[in-house]
UniProtKB/TrEMBL annotation, chain A:
Pfam family, one: VWA_3_C
Entry-linked InterPro entries: CLCR (IPR051266), VWA_3_C (IPR041176), VWF_A (IPR002035), vWFA_dom_sf (IPR036465)
Top-level lineage group: Bacteria
Domain VWFA, chain residue ranges per copy: 43-228
Protein's UniProt name: VWFA domain-containing protein
Classification via PROSITE patterns: VWFA
Amino acid sequence: MATFRAEVFQNEFLPDGGTDVHAIVTVTAEGVGGAVTADGGVAEVVMIDTSGSMTGPTLEAAKHAAQVALDHIPDGTWFAIVSGSHVAQRVFPYPNARVAIVQMEPGARAEAKRAVAALKATGGTAMSTWLRLADQIFATQPAATQRHAILLTDGKNESEPREQLTAAIRDVTGRFQCDARGVGQHWQVDELREISTALLGTVELIADPADIADDFRALLAASLARGVADAQLRVWTPQGGQVLFVRQVAPTVEDLTARRTDITPLVGAYPTGAWADESRDYHVAVRVPSRTVGNEQLAARVQIAVGDEVLASGLVKAAWSDDASLTARISPEVAHYTGQAELADAIQEGLAAKAAGDEATATVKLGRAVQLAAETGNEEATSKLRRVVDIEDEEHGTVRLKRGASRLDEMALDTASTKTTRVRR
Amino acid sequence: MVTAGAPDAAVCPACGEAAGPGARFCEACGAVLAPAGASTTPDGTAAPSTGPADAAAGVARPAAPATPGEHGDPGDPDATVAGAAAPQGARDGAPDAADAEPTPCPACGGEIAPDGYCLECGARAPRERDHVERRASDDVGGVSDVGVRRRRNEDALALGTAGDVAVLVVCDGVASAPDSDRASRAAAQAARDLLVGGLGAVEAPAPDAGAWSRLLVAAGHAADAAVRAAVDDAASREDPPSCTFVAALAGPTLLVAAWLGDSRVYWLPDAGPAEQLTEDDSLAAELVAGGMTREQAERSRDAHAITRWLGADAEDATARTVATRPAGPGWVLACSDGLWNYGSAPDVVAGLVRDAVDRLGPDPVAVARDLVGWANARGGHDNVTVALARVAGPAGTDVAPGTTAEDDPGTVPTVRRRPAGSLAGGPRTAAPPTA
């Protein structure tokens, strides 16, 4: 039986006239158990890039990885394979099959492997068509409520305008979750990040095609460990209050603010997708009307809900005080994750400036990133930053852009920018 | 003692959360679960004790302190002061919280969620302890209030009677140490229980200053032990929960007070000069001892730093005691610094009580409520607790004011005090200096 709990870390004391309340809410799921695949509640779609650029060892590695994935999709799971270029095509079930998705069983597995082995690389890349086809396939099996997809590409989304991809992402958001993987150095981190962020997945760089199979295996294991198909984060604010932002801050930074749907005028719901036994941190910031010193009130109820049932609730408080020793303190959790969110922005903005040839801005932003990574103890970010900049003074964020930094190193830094370290408690 | 007679399945009187057998604090809101009415009658004492009274006294729920006369008219015997249904329900093992209509939010009229906050405006629902009224008898009562500027009432009040002797205990949680509200509640109840039980153990409590002093010192130690037990692992904190302690035994012919810290007992005779019986264990008191005026000392920056207290980091929980023999009728008043911050001199306190009695009559709860309201009207920077006992004075002796009873020379007043320099422990801030 899955249980959730919510812990709140904050300094609830506000000075006279203070209105803004920040809290880190740690949501932990326990006893979730794995996804139950046998009764047909789980569906997986694997999207493989078969554009012309994949020709050669990359395509062979991708085919091998897809076949490994098929071995790791348990019997009973609904599945389909999509090949993507400037158009998307269903590879299995075969295009002429009567159904768009089938339940895994040994015969289907063997036939699907054969279909994957026959893939040829040709054409361009228009990922909007891949996402829309995956969505159509999932939609044919409404009973499968836990829907997960893997998207693998090696290149830019070059066969369509960006707006077309953005529109497709918007249309399929909330319909399934998707992890995006880029092979090699010719794909665009921001394109895949747009997909994975909206579809509550992850984005990763796979530098060596030989590593795709291991990654797929890990992705499926993670997906199948999620025994709670869909949970919502709900935030109640009082009459007259407003949500400033709601951000997932661990394990990765994801801004959820714009993802709100109203449950009631006072309660908004934010999607969090499927859950395994895990813990995630959320930074919730709300603004409430100021009250006189000595008053205490609730600034937010932060709840985790599955279906219509609230499974855990954390209370974010506001207490007005004239004791500066209470009000001046910043919660270490809030400070830590504020720094980590800024770190992600600094890395992305720094790399974007560098790509645009603005070395001055890039140096300042990446210097700030070095400083924040050190302050918040994010060693992975620090080590990835070292491959892109020469650090002269970590504490003050003084850096020089590394001449001849490889594109792969920059992409690795970019994809990892949203990963956070947990606050030390 | 605390659990004697308590129903096995208790329900938190503050928030309605079910509590396991033997639980002393509510898992949901942290309120203490000593069930009113069921818990505090000292069983096994054959004494003419009417029992400690916060038992029956009940839970005052109003957002604002009740106005005088609204609950429990003066002279109404054994009246529960407010919220009579609550202790009754608990006594019957049928907790009212489950059955009662949910009280709407006092701020906006919205529904109060089980988490204790309004579902509409987020205002905190009043907690039981925000405003507590207690009555032990017609002559013994008290009020404890959160005040205006504090979030939580860390003062605690416990009253009782044993024969014609009133028992008053006031403890003030040390604001700088978290969870001191638990400390003060445990201390006050433990001391009261020991005092009522100790007096009740003898057939007719003899007005023996030495015996009463020893009993009060024992009560201080019991309170200290209760604090350590109540705060569990918090005792190992650097700043463990702690509180002041003041207790008074008030009989017709003898008053004995004991204290650690800066909560006080005043003796306010109807005729003759009022007196502060206790002498604060505080930096301010040491400044006065060093020659500073009381007004200057109490305005000084660390005036509220106390030098003795109860709790895991207290070096010595042996209360100092003082005894006096009333020559005639009057009031014994025990209070936390939330009151005397606004009127420290004995004649000021006496004037407040006299004025309240003139307006409201001699009901101790009504008078205490009036004094609490007075402190709140002056800013209410701290929690305010006032306990009062009406003392009849020696029977048949209508002694002239200020004269000494001839059969007891040298005992009016008999004051035993340690020299100020003998205090143990370093200074400690009981409360931030108030504006």
